[in-house]
Design a protein that fits this description.
By secondary structure, the chain is mostly helical. It has one domain. It has 3 helices and no strands. Helix 2 packs antiparallel against helix 3.
Length: about 90
């Protein structure tokens, strides 16, 4: 029986079901977060100085970066699950 390290080096497989499940959860989280950000921006609009409450470049950049980081975080368990299935 091979160790996990040996299996991941020789047979780097991706478990697509694991990745798809996590990316769906990620999409839902990003959508809920965007709704919360827009609602929160409306609530604190009077406290903001020099920035519009819906600064699209800031919202877009944060969604892109958080989505990329979360997708990479989902990829690691999917690769490990694929390595375990290879045995």
């Amino acid at each position: 029986m091979r160790t996990l390290k040996e299996a991941s080096i020789t047979e780097s497989r991706l478990n697509p079901e694991c990745l798809i499940e996590r990316v769906k959860i990620l999409g839902i989280g990003l959508l809920v977060g965007l709704i919360g950000a827009v609602t929160g921006a409306r609530l604190i609009e009077g406290l903001l100085y020099g920035v519009s409450p819906l600064d699209l470049p800031s919202l877009g950049t944060s969604i892109l970066l958080l989505g990329l980081a979360a997708t990479l975080a989902c990829l690691i368990p999917a690769l490990k699950a694929g390595a375990h299935q290879a045995d």
